């Protein structure tokens, strides 16, 4: 059955002017755009969104990075969209993410303590429901 996922274009993607290209790739794959917003993160939203990473060495750099500029939040819908978007996004580390993926084509290591990897996509139906509630409330 059709499911929904939360996609974030992180501050690096927005500041580099890649939001439109990134959203266009998701639409071109055939997923339907359901909701869209330009938002500023807050520490509270990030703590809820990244609850499983709180306390990891990259958590504070990750928060600083996510607070560094506006974010595009989008909800996409379709059969297996969670898996489909993650495949389109590519591996977490942009240097070695496969060419053809969003991270592989547009991302690289910038020498910082956090992976600036352009996009986030929910990893399960439960995370998607939780995350859509955080960014669209
Ligand atoms: P995302 O998929 O949004 O989920 C957690 C984020 O933390 C991840 O993308 C990266 O931006 C960042 N991240 C994950 N693992 C590491 C790591 N080992 N070092 C630095 N940043 C990381």
How would you summarize the topology of this molecule?
Layout (H helix, E strand, L loop, with lengths): L1 E8 L1 H5 L3 H11 L2 E8 L3 H7 L9 H8 L4 E9 L1 H9 L12 H5 L12 E3 L3 H11 L2
Antiparallel strand pairs: 1-3, 1-4, 2-3
Bound molecules: adenosine-3',5'-cyclic-monophosphate (CMP).
Q: Which features does this protein show?
A:
4-stranded antiparallel β-sheet; globular; 4 strands; alpha+beta; nucleotide metabolism; 137 residues; EC 2.7.4.6; Alpha-Beta Plaits; metal ion binding; binds adenosine-3',5'-cyclic-monophosphate; 20% strand; cytoplasm
Structural features, described:
- With 137 residues, the chain is α+β, with helices and mostly antiparallel strands.
- The chain has one domain (2-135): Nucleoside diphosphate kinase-like domain (Alpha-Beta Plaits).
- It is built from seven helices and four strands, in the order E-H-H-E-H-H-E-H-H-E-H.
- Strands 2-3-1-4 form a four-stranded antiparallel beta sheet, sandwiched between helices.
- Adenosine-3',5'-cyclic-monophosphate binds next to loops.
């Amino acid at each position: 059955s059709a499911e929904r996922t939360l996609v974030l274009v992180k501050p690096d993607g927005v500041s580099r002017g890649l939001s439109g290209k990134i959203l266009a790739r998701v639409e071109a794959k055939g997923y339907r755009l359901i909701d869209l917003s330009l938002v500023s993160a807050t520490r509270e939203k990030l703590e809820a969104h990244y609850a499983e990473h709180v306390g990891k060495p990259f958590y504070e750099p990750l928060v600083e990075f996510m607070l560094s500029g506006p974010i595009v939040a989008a909800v996409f819908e379709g059969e297996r969209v969670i898996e489909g978007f993650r495949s389109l996004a590519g591996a977490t580390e942009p240097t070695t993410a496969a060419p053809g993926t969003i991270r592989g084509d547009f991302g690289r290591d910038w020498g910082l303590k956090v992976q600036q990897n352009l996009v986030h996509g929910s990893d399960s139906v439960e995370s998607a429901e939780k995350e859509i509630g955080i960014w669209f409330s």
